[in-house]
Structures are given as structure tokens and as C-alpha cells.
Automatic annotation (TrEMBL):
Entries under InterPro entries matching the protein: DUF212
Superkingdom of source: Bacteria
Organism, scientific name: Vibrio paucivorans
Protein name from the UniProt record: Divergent PAP2 family protein
UniProt keywords, alphabetically: Membrane, Transmembrane, Transmembrane helix
A Pfam cross-reference name: DUF212
Annotated transmembrane regions: 6-23, 35-58, 64-84, 118-136
Coiled-coil ranges (or none): none
Amino acid sequence: MDLSYIITPFFAWLVTGICKFTINTIKQRRLAFDLVGYGGMPSNHSAIVSSAAAIIAFKDGVESPALVAALALAFIVILDASSLRQQIGKHAKAINHLNRNSGKKALRERMGHTRIEVLAGIVSGILSAGLVHRMFT
């Protein structure tokens, strides 16, 4: 069994997560553990699904039926990350504004990704897949 198919998405998640933590730490000028998760630069979700599609393309070729399934999944995840979850973040911001004096715990507002964050995630995923592919060939 070729482990590169399993290792690639995990590796992309790890690389992108480290990049996101580093960027957030520099921007906030503190260790930004509380900002790990949804939203931010680069998009972990985009990196994971892009790396899966890329490793399939590198290993099996662009005519692989598995690539079609991976690309379809990638489009769904990327659209969700850049549109639906951004709307959820906007709703959370409005709810937090309404509840600001109620003593209720604030909802997380940082949920979705901008286009540049998604693009950075895609690039990170493809580069991660390329690196894993080179290590396993």
C-alpha cells in the first residue's frame, strides 16, 4: 500500500496549521493558540482537499476517476469555507452585538476565509503533495 495518499492530507494540515499559527502569532504579537481553528491565513480546509487531489493527480494522472471525486470534494469544501462559513461569522458578529451586555459567552466570529486565504491554502496543499510525492518516489 502506498502511504503517500494517507500522509499527504495530514502533512498539508500540519504545514498549513503551523503557517497559520505563525502568521497569527506575528500579527497578534503573542502566542495565538486561541486563534487556531476556523478562518485565517491560509485555509487548512483548502490545503487538505487540494493536497488530496494533487497527490492523486501526481500518482495516478489527470485521467484518474479518483481525481474527479477528489476535485468535486475540493470544490464543495472550498465553496463552504469561502462563502457559507463567512456568512456564519457575520451572523455570529451580529448576535454578539445583540448579546454584548447579557453576560452570555461570545460566539466565535472568525469562521470563513477570504479568497486569498483559500488560494494560499490551495497552494500550500499542492506544494505539500508535491513534496510528499518526491519523498515517496
